[in-house]
Design goal:
313 residues, alpha+beta, Ribonuclease Rh, Chain A, 2 domains, 5-stranded antiparallel sheet, 9 helices
Length: 313
């Protein structure tokens, strides 16, 4: 076995050494940009993370919150390296009809920087988390249906935020949702982006946030707080060269090693390809109202309530 390991490692070390030597040649020895290419090869060789177990795609097995944990879920972060999504996503690019560009049910997944997508309760079939509907806003909206239809909401790529029911309305964008492409553009395009993001934030609240006992302000404040360090780390990985959708697994691997409290639930894929999304396991402590990004094995310690016992189904 030792000989087999050495037989594998020595050629690998030699290959890296060759790349180092090639990358250090003087400029007058370079031909057709070959030195630059070798420098890139060296950078890739040195940043390959230690091996990680394969992460489930597109989704992990159903999440078990634990015997004394009533609510758990995932923090979804978009690396910005995917494709497909609304607001001029790939469907728009592949469409021959202008109306084909109105699919805005997801954020655009190809972006210059990472962004948080949302914080989702893993209710059945995704897990056994309870959905404890919020009080005032849930009651106010119980007789209203808000099924998103691009045709009704967006006309000629002009989205009207008035289509959001008032009981779900978040009037001000949380800091971590301030534009998925950086600062909003000027003119009509910027207004479209702002309205889209306003709709998207309300969509996240209506679909996911209302399963908890928080109000929208607290819910999104926690989303931004939890995602901030992770988003910045992913941006740094991208700056180091992990900047292709095929690097999403390597990014997830580095994230799980650089943040010891993180457990990768899955790297979400889709039937349209990859959305470049990383899902991190999290639990909600109902006594404190605080979410914790943590491995599932730590849910009981961080979020457990001895007074609550999950029913055996």
């Amino acid at each position: 076995m030792l000989l087999q390991i050495l037989a594998f490692c020595i050629p690998l070390a030699s290959a890296v050494e060759d790349v180092v030597k090639e990358g250090l040649r003087s400029d007058d020895e370079c031909l057709d940009g070959q030195c630059a290419l070798n420098a890139v090869q060296l950078q890739r060789a040195l940043r390959i993370p230690p091996s990680c177990p394969p992460f489930p795609e597109p989704y992990a097995p159903p999440m078990d919150c634990g015997r004394h944990v009533q609510q758990c879920g995932v923090l979804a972060i978009d690396t910005g390296l995917g494709f497909y999504g609304g607001l001029n996503g790939s469907k728009c690019a592949n469409s021959s009809s202008p109306t084909g560009c109105t699919d805005q049910t997801n954020p655009p997944y190809s972006q210059p920087r990472a962004k948080v997508h949302g914080l989702w309760f893993e209710t059945p079939p995704y897990g056994n988390s309870s959905c404890l509907h919020s009080h005032d806003w849930d009651t106010a909206c119980q007789n209203q249906s808000w099924v998103f239809t691009p045709e009704a909401y967006c006309k000629e790529q002009a989205c009207d935020s008035a289509g959001i029911p008032q009981c779900y309305s978040v009037k001000k964008l949380p800091t971590c949702y301030q534009g998925y492409r950086g600062p909003f553009a000027a003119g009509a395009q910027g207004e479209l982006e702002r309205r889209y993001m306003l709709w998207f934030v309300n969509h996240e609240w209506q679909k996911h946030g209302t399963c908890g006992q928080q109000d929208p302000t607290d819910y999104f404040a926690q989303v931004c707080r939890l995602s901030g360090p992770l988003v910045r780390a992913i941006d740094s990985y991208r700056m180091q060269g992990l900047d292709n959708y095929t690097d999403v697994h390597a990014i997830a691997c580095k994230l799980s090693k650089d943040f010891d409290y993180v457990e990768i639930s899955s790297t979400g894929g889709s039937t349209f390809g990859t959305n470049g999304e990383i899902l991190l396991s999290a639990c909600l402590n109902l006594a404190t109202g605080q979410w914790h990004v943590a491995p599932v094995s730590q849910f009981e310690r961080l979020c457990g309530d001895p007074a609550y016992v999950r029913p055996v189904l």
